[in-house]
Amino acid sequence: MLERELRTLRGSDRDKPGGVPRGCLYLCVVAALLCAAQLLAPAAAHARDLVVYGEPTLEKALKSVGSLWQARTGTRVNVLVAPTNLSYGARCDVIFALAGAATEEAARAKIIQGATITRALRNGLVLVGTKGAAGPIDGANVADISRLIAGERLAIANPERDPTGARALELLRKIGIAADDNRALAVAESSAGVVNLLATDKARLGIVYSTDAIAGFKLVVPLLDQPPIEYVVAQARDPQSDTQPFMAFVKSAAAQAAFKSAGLAPIDDAQAAGGGND
23 FRET partner, CA 20 to 30 A, in 33, 40, 60, 145? Predict the structure, then answer.
């Protein structure tokens, strides 16, 4: 269409008497188009959306932080969730992943930029239930858990796929409860699945992440003597956007407040309280 319009403006080689020479008119139009292209260039160069992958239990928190970032910068944050071992290799800009072997291997394989790995967040484990306790409970050790779950159907996440399930299975073994073929035990695919079992009355108690405990349960008991589940943030191998401003924002007061509201503990806060494991 542009070529056709330019040919029309060129017309014949013969200019009309008293009018603007056609050659000059043609040059003016070309100049105007070039100026318009220059004016539009900054808009085309605007930073594209950020793509952030994270553990499923971090979804709500990451979306909250993404909304804050968009309100501040105008750049949208697309949050996608998958278990850490499945997130690595996905095309994205930033990854929030479980600390540990999978992350260390991803750094060695240069799937993420190892120099950018930063300890970011901690999650806890809690016993939740649809029935309240007789009195306030600030925490539960192995003996307390044994007493609380006696005679109740308990739901845990799949220990082969979810850290909460693996931790819960270990606790049950300490108590002396066999997980195999135990009718008092329900196994869900994930911690979120445990929440669903309680919501549909298929279990009365469950062991979940602290981030799942904000769903409004009548019983919420932090599990004592359990090391926190830690997450790191890292830049992907080939980010398509500048990630540094966003990764700095993750440590800001506004972002940390959003993480706390979602049931997470920013690493800096935990260390300041003497909870560091360095």
Answer: 40
